[in-house]
Amino acid sequence: MDEFELIRRYFAAAACAHTNANVVLGIGDDCAILAPDPGQQLLVSTDTLVAGCHFPDPCDPYLLGQRALAVAASDLAAMGAEPLGFTLALSLPKADPAWLASFARGLGAMAACCDLRLVGGDTTCGALSLTVTVMGQTQAGQALLRSGAHPGELLCVGGCLGDAAGALSWVLGEQDGDCPPALWQHYWQPMPQLALGQALRGVASAAMDISDGLLADCGHLSQASGVNLQLQAAWVPRSPALLSALPEETSWECALSGGDDYVLLFTLPPERLVSLQVQGHRVYVVGWVQSGEGVQLHAPADGLICSPREGYLHFA
Ligand code: ADP
Ligand code: MG
To answer: What is the position in ligand 1's atom list of the atom closest to the CA of 89?
Structure first.
């Protein structure tokens, strides 16, 4: 099977590669042609996953396909974008039909969840790595940025934190026994919060997705907005699965500093909270915005002292 046969069989023929009103031309030419709706701006983001760094090698290719697209699509959610399409640059050590079929199915499943069309890519032979570029649209000027938070606003998250970090020791094969399914699922099938992100347009003052861990990403939001963030550890939601799988202190570390959550972090004026909740969005207040800089963590009420780690840094 050569490169072109591979592209045809596993990607061009996939349901997620069909064109639609916004994808004028998909896989097969030198470029894809996208047509955002009138008055919309195009949002673009790229994520690379390298075997042995961002995911264990070997791993289940179906889950890898899901995860690769989910982590990229989470950036569209973070800015309130409506998904349009994505490209996939794939570097593979060999063309294994079973691996490719399973990977493409996982990718297609997440593409369907996110309503994203595969519009092109690149296929090369080399060490396993995946680069996904996602594209979305928002009304001009409506995209959510990290830089809009103001003193007096609430600091919120869109779901429980720490589940993916809680799964990590099982994902990496460092722990015996079965990983609790809810944690496993959060690592391999994080669900980009696209509907929440879209609902936050015109409501949240700043937003981003949590990929490096709550504390580290609060630091990024605080810096971009030029504000101080007060974080109440006791208000940070943790799932029943995390609480029952791990000791108390480890579950705090996962929720506060663990990465791979892909849950939205945002700020908003207090009076806007109810309207979001009435629409059915799960929103958790975890702190507030003050003037100043940096992030201050208030330890949980029981006096437990957390030892927050920094977020993950390449080249550190
Ligand atoms: P070029 O040499 O002009 O860059 P390629 O031969 O790399 O084009 O790719 C041929 C077509 O297949 C292009 O439309 C490209 O976007 C698409 N393509 C290549 N690899 C992938 C992939 N992994 N997934 C989806 N589309 C791909
Ligand atoms: Mg070309």
So the answer is: 23
